[in-house]
Please model this.
Amino acid sequence: MTEDEWGEGKPVRFIVRPVDSEPVVARERRPREFPELPPSELQLVARLVHRERADELDFGSEEHLRAVLAEFDLRRLTKQVRKALMDALERPYPHVDAALGEVVPK
Model:
């Protein structure tokens, strides 16, 4: 299955998953760089972080975005990274909603 999650029409940025695989999985970043992280994976992690820390983090706040980056062992919240994160958080991904229904909160 191939998806253009960024909506750019650039095949190099398409997400490719085996047909019978989970629709979205939160994985360790390494050896991937930030631009290689699928937006649905970013959104899944962001929503899980918020679910666990909703009492202290506003969704999409700088602190929230930094917590998401920390989950991927990243630290630099540049303007470009902030924009990419916010774009990923604002897009509708029904498969993220479905995955969250399957995830048991800690």
